[in-house]
Queue: 2 jobs
Job 1
Amino acid sequence: MYVILDIYSRYAVGWMLATKESAELAKLLISETCARQDVQKDELIIHSDRGPSMTSKAVALLLSDLGVTKSLNRPYVSNDNPFSESQFKTLKYQPEFPERFGCLEDARNFCTDFFEWYNNHHFHTGLALMPPGKVHYGLAEACNEQRTAVLKQAFAKTPERFINGEPKGLKLPDEAWINKPKTEEERSSIVATTCNGAIIGDVR
């Protein structure tokens, strides 16, 4: 399985299921995803593991043509892509995830349903309980305003139920990082991944 995530919104902007890992398939998925998401040159970083498809010459040339910066996991660091690790865990821990799939088409059907749910209905704990799709497409602020209005109504109606006072809505993170630098000087020297500014990809 190939998956491309936006690391800020956690939105799965592209995915593909195949019988084998291939540089050509990775190239196809990346190019189609960049076109669908209207990615312009020099505005994207793709972070991935050091698998053969992502380190291939074909993918390197494609990223160069697209103006995409390539970033790779540190050698021998298996958890250097935490957003992707978390997304795959969510997939595999679904109650409906079978012990085995009957065929490739079964797996694709399952993944089609999963990613529709994950992107549009999964209340993500890292996103103030917003579905990734609302964050990715700029709908989170309006959703938060609605939630705040409902909380205020509930508090006005039965304040005794809220022992800590009037409840407040959760706040979305300001930024997302992979291996966040410890100092402000280090942070200013590299690209922070803010609001759909970077994508990570992974293959399992």
Job 2
Amino acid sequence: MGNDDTDTVRGYWTISDKIRTNSSEARLETLIAQRAQSGADKVGIDARIWDLFGERWAVMFTDLSGFSRMTADFGITHFLQVTHESHRLTFPIIEAFDGILLKIEADSLLVIFRSPARSMQCALKIQSSAGKYNQQRSENERLHLCIGLGYGDMLRVGDQDVFGYEVNAASRLGEDTADRGEILVTPAFHDAIAENSGDSRFELLENPPRFVDGALRVLYQSD
């Protein structure tokens, strides 16, 4: 390769490195590192972070009920099969209701929506579809999904992740608290869809999880 080609390659990687360091994730990491320095203007840096990454979204966490028991009783390959079927069922529904899938962690999904009403419709459709799917399956192959929903301001880092109180609350509701077939929502989510909840009804959760300021259970008619 001649010098011109070498210079072109070097130039290409220089540009690529610059793009990479200007990505959302790298930019946030840089600002957090600056914030950690002694004497840093944390208020000013926080303002920059929220200006760059602050957005308002509805957030959904889904989880498969019985993960540990299923793996212990039937083995990891059976769990992978059920997870595959869960994704095959939920992904088209999420797309149909304009959700953006940000993360898959084992049997859990993190999804965001611009519209809280659409996220509610999506959650109801997922549970309805899972119910129909389960009618044709043995108990150990059924999809028992738990869903948590939140809504509010959060930090969105590209298509990698979101951070914020409502994210944490929805995660606790969907992954740690909801029982099979349940949809649990934060008070902020409930308030956001109060005028567009359709036929959905809600009841207060008597014992919400720690660090969550209340929660409501969606009462819906299963098919």
